[in-house]
Amino acid sequence: AAIQNTPSSFNIINAEKGGFHELRLQFQAKGIFLADKQLAVWNSDTIAVMDVQSSLVALPSTTFQCTAKDVALVSQTVITLENDKVNMRTLQGTVKQQITVPEMEGDPCAIHVNRNWLVLATTNNFLRVYDLSKREARQQYLAKGIELEPGHVLSEVRINVNGTRVAATFGKSNRPDSLCVWDAESDSLSSFSFKTGLTEEQQLEEEAERATSTGARPVTAAARRIERDRSRFCLPSHKTAALQWDEVDPRFLVVEARTDSADAGESYVMTALATSEFGLLPHALQPLSHNTSRLIGISVPNVYFIKNKEAEDEDSRSDRIVAKLLLVRTLQEFAGIEESDASSRDAMLNFCLFLTLGRIDDAFKAIKFIRSEKVWQQMASMSVKARRIDVATVCLGHMGEARAAAALRRATSRGESEKERCALLALYLGMLDEAESLYINCRRWDMVVKMFVARLKWQEALKIADQHTRIDAKRLYFQYAKSLEEKGDISGAIENYEKAGTHIREVTRMLCRDYIRELEAYVRKKREPELQKWWAAYLEYTGNIDGALNFYSVAEDVPSIVRILLQHDRLDEAIAKAEESNNPAAFLIVARNCEGIGRIEDAVNLYTKANAVSSAIRLAQENDMVDKMATLCLMAGPREMANGAAFYEDIPGHAQTAVMLYHKAGMIGRALDVAFRTEQYTAMDLVTMELTAQSDKTTLERAAEFFLKNHNFDKAAELLAMAQKLPEAIRLCEERNVRMTEKLTNLLTPSKESFPDLPTRKSILLSVGELCLIQGSFQAAAKKFAQAGAMVEAIRALIRSSDTARIMAFAGIARNKEVYVMAANYLQTTNWREDVELCKAIETFYNKAQAFDHLAGFYMSCAQMELDETGAVHTAIHALDEAEKVAMKARENSETLKRVKSYQAECQRLFKIWRSFDVDPTDAMRQLRNAQVGPYLNVPETIAVLVKGLAHENKWKDAWSCIEELVKKSGTSKPTQFVPRVFLDQIADEVGQKRLDLGVEEGESDEGEMEEVDFSHQMKRQGV
User: Is the peptide bond before 301 cis (omega within 30 degrees of 0)?
Assistant: First the structure.
């Protein structure tokens, strides 16, 4: 290799042996090209050719004038790129051949020579390959045009060792970000973009997958591979730099992906494989250190870079520096097997190819003869980078790594993702950076923290813990503090113990032996109560009582102050301090002291203030303090109340207190026992108020018995019902006429759990309903009858309540013909003439019950109402027509039908007379005088109907004639019995006659507004 040091000096380096020789020039060089044994150096107008000896000394050979953009050497020929052509010159500068390109391809802009092959790139993005092995350069393949986006250009071109493939980087002129490979033999072009991390073929596959995929379709293996490659190779903030083919293998190439600045992230070198069958296949990414400056070559297993001048000259774990200017890095795929033979290297490259393609069987066939454990380990590492867990598992078997294989199986059984398993495997293979990157990528921050801790990267671990795993932060701070303490960094340990929240215990432990003054200063500085308590305890231990009291006081640790005062026989001060602070723990300490010295009264009071009521009760009971026991027991829990009640039970005259305490303790049965035995009736009432249906059955029965003896039958009935003694409770209600309240009625309702037998439940419900009915609770009675299934009895009870809304609602859901009929019959007793909804309900109920006789009768009532109120004969006739239709549904020639038809005939005759007034009033009056008496309308009633009807039509003269006839036909009856007085007076006024002098009869109504009444919903449907 030849590396430029200064504008006028170079170093010629032997990369294998490590030797170098500095070459100084007489002019400033623009470029340098090193062939096998020759070296060409040029500037803007001069080219110098030198011979390179085995000792790396360069001897001047020839110099000639030439203006060249780029220069290459091959087989005693100097190749120069000059403006719009490429010249093949002798070593003396004579042009022996000139290579030109068609105008459509543009001008030559870049050349590259590898062995006997030349690639030429033009400004219009065409590529040409020439064979230089003959005397003259010959074009080997047809020129290949590359279609690029507008504004994109070819940046750098390289041809492989056998001239079959050309690689080029392209993109915007100042930021190329893509790579393409032209396979000249198959004339195929493959490309890859760092923006997407995918090849062109993968992008097309992804678009096709997206176009055909549905939500229910599972993810295919191809889609998973595309996503895996995207996550590995996507570097949107990077641009391509140098590009090199391997010196031996024509398939293997390397390209740099660098960032514009160190702040933008790491730079990488990407290895790739190119084949005629599969195109361009990205293989792996390796991060570059800041020591590298530029990629200059690759010879598997090594990659060669120019060393950054600012970097140190020492070798690192992954890099080796040669002659202070050349940096050699071993590819990760070959780490540990650098010295392997050519066959092993070829097998490894084939393995890489098939592994990238996902052809596992072919991958293992390529390496089946390899026995080296290092090779298998390296292949396992490659499998991890390729995210191929299946391949890595096989490699683990060949390596004999049983622990790693077992850990992998456990991770699979736990349902961990592929990335998590890859990271775990990377840990076992020693690939710590790869494991860290994978765990960060899948957000397994707990594992990242563990790795940092294991590698003693405490600051990174703590930063991750603070940001992502706060649950581990305090534990990590504690571990870090321990580590610092072991190293003797006391201040650092104190800081991290504080962050861990353990400084009260750990800092005092750490400083109390050899740093007591520092500890005191630390306590005074922190001013934390817990630290002050610890320091006070230390002073107390060392006998400094005043200092201890001072620090206890500052820490507000009253119990400790009281304890020290008592130890020094200062009881009054201790009591005063406890009273001042009102601290329960201090009261307890003083109380125990008072008990020990026999001050029982003070002890009981102090135990009470300390909320140690059990101790106060014990002490009061031992000293027969009867007056205080009850109060203390009420302040305690159920157990103490029960003990206190037993205490009072044995003392004559305190039975009521015992009952009260048993009651408060929840021991209702025991309270009742004591109340029964001592005849505490008032207490008994209070106890039973809290009895419920969930109380003990025996207790309920005994309480009921008690109330029966005391003639409190209402309470006894409730308690019997709670005890599910329903027959006895009902019998008591019947015998003692107990009022059936809503609460008692609900209690007497049997449940399926207590009375599984259906007939028994029905019998009880009927009995409860009868009781409610007798006492006038009609709605409650109806509810119980309905629950028993006695719908008829239920509707009868509701009818007796006269609650029309409830009757209609109940009938609507009863599904019982008899109930329908009874409800409709009841509704006819209401003011149905004024309420259309009631009319609809009557018709509906009769229809549901198929009670057509009843419905026909209802329509006849409607007809009669029309005749009586408005004299609307035609409306009455329509009502009777409806009645006829309904009656015919019942039974033909039935009595109802006969009555309807008879009524119809009378109304028809009346209607004929009415209409005759329009044609011949005299004939109408004649017909009226000769009208026959029918079963429904006599003569006065007939005349009255005509009067009302004629008045409604404003036929006042005819109406007055009918009134005169009515007066004649009424006999002993007055006309007002048939026609309201208001009609008579209004008609007389309209015809100018004197009002009839009929007198005023008792009960006669002068109300009679001429308003039409809607007789039924059925008639409205007919459009009458």
Answer: yes
Q: Select from 978, 918, 974 the least CA-distant residue to 943.
A: 978
Residue 38: pLDDT over 70: yes
Amino acid code (one letter) for 953: E
The number of domains in the chain is 2
What residues have CB less than 8 Å from 199, skipping those under 6 apart? Answer: 190, 191, 192, 279, 280, 281, 282
Residue with tokens 């209402």: 714
Boundary of a domain, candidates 504, 531, 548: 504
Q: What is the pLDDT of residues 771-781, one digit of tens each?
A: 888 888 888 88
Confirm if 456 and 463 have CB atoms less than 8 A apart. no
Domain span including residue 1004: 901-1021
d(CA 322, CA 306) in angstroms, rounded, equals 10
How does pLDDT run across 97-146, given as a tens digit for each residue? 999 999 999 999 999 999 999 999 999 999 999 999 998 999 999 999 99
Residue 962 has pLDDT above 90, yes or no: no
Which of 915 and 501 is assigned the larger pLDDT?
501
Tokens (6 digits) for 99:
């290579």
Residues 669 and 699: beta-carbon distance below 8 Å: yes
Residue where a domain terminates, one of 443, 469, 504: 504
Nearest to 294 by CA among 309, 310, 306: 306
Is 548 domain-assigned? no
205 within 8 A of 225, measured Cβ to Cβ: no
Quote the tokens at residue 35. 């062939």
**Is residue 428 one of the residues assigned to a domain?**
yes
Single-letter amino acid, residue 821: V
- Among residues 636, 683, 679, which one has the least CA distance to residue 663? 683
Is 1011 a domain residue?
yes
User: Shortest CA distance to 144 belongs to which of 84, 190, 79, 98?
Assistant: 190
Global model pTM greater than 0.70: no
DSSP codes, 258-292: E-SSGGG--EEEEEEEEETTTEEEEEEEEEEPTTE
316: tokens are: 């690192």
Please, what sign has the CA dihedral across residues 89, 94, 99, 100?
positive
**Residue 97: strand, helix, or coil:** strand
pLDDT, tens digit, 9 for 90 and up, residues 465-487: 888 888 888 999 999 999 999 99
Backbone angles phi, psi at 1016, to 5 degrees: -170, 160
Task: Please tell me the distance from the alpha carbon of residue 450 to that of residue 427, in angstroms, as a whole number.
Answer: 11
Indicate the DSSP class of residue 931: P
Rounded to the nearest angstrom, the gap between the alpha carbon of residue 669 and the centroid of all alpha carbons in its chain is: 51
Concatenate the DSSP letters of all residues of 196-241 into one string.
TTEEHHHHHHHHHHHHH--TTSPPPHHHHHHHHHHHHH--TT-EEE
Distance CA 364, CA 590 (A): 84
Q: What backbone torsions phi and psi does residue 585 show, to the nearest 5 degrees?
A: -65, -40
DSSP H helices in 488-544? 490-500, 503-511, 516-526, 529-541
Token pair for 290: 């800041």
What is the identity of the amino acid at 268? Y
Residue 120 falls inside a structural domain: no
The Cα 249–Cα 469 span in angstroms is 48
The length of the chain, given as a count of residues: 1024
Could you give phi then psi for residue 172, rounded to 5 degrees? -65, 150
Residue 570 tokens read as 């200062």
